[in-house]
Every structure is written in C-alpha cells, then in structure tokens.
Amino acid sequence: MPLITSIRRAVRRSYRRAVDLSHPARSPLGSSVVNCVVYREGARQYGDGDVEDALRRVRKAGDGFVWIGLHEPEQEEFTDLAELFGLHRLAIEDAVHEHPRPKVARYDDMLFAVFKTVCYVAHAELTATSEVVDTGELIAFVGADFVITIRHGGHGSLGPLREALEADPEQLAKGPAAVLHALADHVVDEYLAVTDAVQGDIEVVENAVFSEDSGRGDAGRIYQVKRELLELKRAVAPLDRPLHQLATQPMPVIGPEIRAYFRDVADHLTRATEQLTAYDALLDSILQAHLAQVTVAQNEDMRKITAWAAIVAIPTMVCGVYGMNFDHMPELHWTYGYPLVLSVIAAACFVIHRGFRRNGWL
Predict the structure, then answer these.
(1) What is the pLDDT of residues 9-34, one digit of tens each?
(2) What domain count does the chain have?
(3) CB-based burial of residue 119 (10 Å sphere; 0-12 exposed, 13-18 middle, 19+ buried)?
(4) If 0-12 CB within 10 Å is exposed, 13-18 middle and 19+ buried, where does residue 199 land?
(5) Domain with 341 in it
(6) 112 strand-pairing partners
(7) CB-CB contact of 329 with 320 (8 Å)
(8) What is the DSSP letter of 238?
(9) Could you tell me the membrane topology recorded for this protein (predicted)?
(10) pLDDT (tens digit, 9 = 90+) per residue, 59-77?
(11) Is residue 270 part of a domain?
C-alpha cells in the first residue's frame, strides 16, 4: 500500500528530528496525513506513528482508539486507509469530495459526519467586494476503536482541539464519541465567534446609512454583508437536524451519556441560528432604510431642479417676448425701458427664489 509505505518512511525520518504533528502546515506522515495518535484510558500513547501498527495495537489490547487526522487527501491515498479500517465503499467518495450540506450517516457500526467550518476574514475596511466569511469542511469517520478526521479548506486546524482533549483525560476516556462531540462543539463555537464578528460589520453599514454624510454607495456594502451572511447561514442552519439525531436517536458508538453533551451543542447551534436570523432581518431593514433615503434624496434633487427651472423660466419668457422684434412694444423707445425690464425680471426671480427657500425646495 503506497500510503502505508510512505508513512513508515516518514516516521523513520522523524526519529532524526522533532516534528510538531499537530501543526496544519506540517505533514511528516504523508502528503495528507497530519497526525496519528493512539489513546488509551484518556492518555496519549507515544509510539512510532505507524497507522497499521497503531490500529493493530488498539485491537489487540481491546481498549483505546486511534485518531488519524488528514487534510484534503486524494482518492487514491484515502483508498488505502479505507481498506485498512474497513470503511464502507461509499465512504471513499464521501471523504474526498465536498458536500453541500452538513449531515450524519450510518454505515453499519460506523458513523459518518460532515460539518461545515467557518472562519471570519479580517479586513481593514469593509467594501462592496470584501470577503467576510470563509467556509471549509470537516469530515469525521467514527468507529468503536478509531476516529478519522478530514479537513477541507485552509482553516480549522484541529491541533488546539486535540491538545484541549488531551488536557481532559476523563472526557477523552469516553472514547471516539467524546472526540465527535468535541468536533461538533468546536465547529459550533466557531459559528458563534464568526456570528459575533459579523455583527461588527453590520454595525458599520448601519452607522454609515444613518450618518449625515451617508452616500449612495452603501448599498454595495449592504449587499456584500448580506451575501456573506447567507453563506454563513448555509453552513449553520442545516446542522440542526444532524445534531438533533446525535442528541436524541440511538447511534453506533454514541452512548446515552454522550447524547446529553450533544444536546448542549444543539442549544448553542440554536443560539447561532437565531442570531443569524435576527441579523438577516436587520440587514433587510437597513437596506430598506437606505433605499428610502436614496428616494428622498432623489426627490430633493428633483425639487431643486424644478425650482431653478421655474426661476429661469421668467427671464426666458420676458426675453422671448422682446425677442420677437415688434416695433410697438412697451417702453421700447424709452431710454429707461431696458433697465426697467431687467429690474422686473430680477425682482420676479428674487420673489420666486425666496418662496422656494421658504418652502424648503432650495
């Protein structure tokens, strides 16, 4: 098996230098394998990191489990691992291709779970093209004595999560189900963190819309935040049903004690979903307010144009009459006739201008 052979060669090289296996950018066990660790009674068992040997030791001892972490494996690579762990044939295709929605599926005595991961993209200034939310995917195969996690995307490293679990041996001793709960809890916590961060962008566009110097270009930023919020909702909302299944329905590997933990995660997910729904409604209100402001501004512009057109119409009318070159016109041959007409035009324009100013048209 090419993957197993590459793992053994990489492990032999790792003896000559210290390597941080939990770091997402380093993969000494192969091109996609990030980590391979055996846990027994909640404690990490240090060994040579060989996947085949780790699984054999766990099954020979009859207790403990092996946790293998991968990052974007190719189908040929994962085929070897699937054969080693006896995964269902459909699992190979599911592991290497991204899924449109989170889900939980049962393959014999194994659970297959898909979570959508999210990450807030920091930006110096919110624009109409700013990326706010980046999404990825976390896949977990959970059996009686193994956990296989697969990440898709450039974020969502599980190194800190693994360290937190290792710091709580009592929880980790509950087996692979405890790892699945920790994964779900980690993903939902990220939902809450990103949701809180997005609130800051919503406040930015809200303040811009209701500020005195708000511009008509704010619509682009509102649509961008709404589009990114929609992407976040697509990751968060569909997870409700899978978590409900894990919390209430009998599942392989998941005991009654762990189901109570999943109910707590489901409560957190409900909070995130409610926040996103409220933010979406708020953005709709902000957009409607912005469009109303644009309409009012356009009406004010039209009133100003109409007022100036009315003022200009007076000299246009008078000059048009005198431009007909009739011989018998009022005061035509009078010395002060021309200044008198100009004075009448100026007085009429002043009166109309003052009336428009008084009515708020100018």
Answers:
(1) 333 333 223 333 333 333 444 457 77
(2) 1
(3) middle
(4) middle
(5) 294-358
(6) 105, 141
(7) no
(8) G
(9) Multi-pass membrane protein
(10) 888 888 999 988 888 777 7
(11) no
Per DSSP, the residues of 240-309 read HHHHHHHHHS-BTTB-HHHHHHHHHHHHHHHHHHHHHHHHHHHHHHHHHHHHHHHHHHHHHHHHHHHHHH
* AA letter at 316: T
Report residue 59 as tokens. 């099954």
Q: What is the CATH number of the domain that holds 302?
A: 1.20.58.340
DSSP conformational letter for 239: G
Q: Are strands 33-40 and 65-71 parallel, antiparallel or unpaired?
A: antiparallel
Give the mean pLDDT of 93-114.
Answer: 82
Residue that wins the pLDDT comparison between 164 and 329? 164
The tokens of 58 are what?
Answer: 């766990």
pLDDT of residue 277: 93
Closest to 31 in 3D by CA, of 13, 10, 12: 10
Cα 312–chain centre separation: 55
Please enumerate in sequence order all residues whose Cβ is within 8 A of that of 147, keeping only pairs 6 or more positions apart, or say none. Answer: 65, 66, 67, 68, 140, 141, 176, 179, 180
286 in a domain, yes or no?
no
Tell which residue, 2, 11, 157, has the closest CA to residue 78.
2
Helix, strand, coil percentages for the chain (3-state, nearest 5): 60, 15, 30
Q: Residue 250 has which token pair?
A: 């009998």
Dist CA 203 CA 298 (whole Å): 25
Neighbour count for residue 348 (Cβ, 10 Å): 16
Max Cα-Cα span within the chain? 124
Question: Is there a domain that residue 343 lies in?
Answer: yes
CB atoms within 10 A of CB 86: 13
Range name among 25-34, 248-257, 330-339 with the lowest pLDDT average: 25-34
Percent of the chain with pLDDT over 90: 27
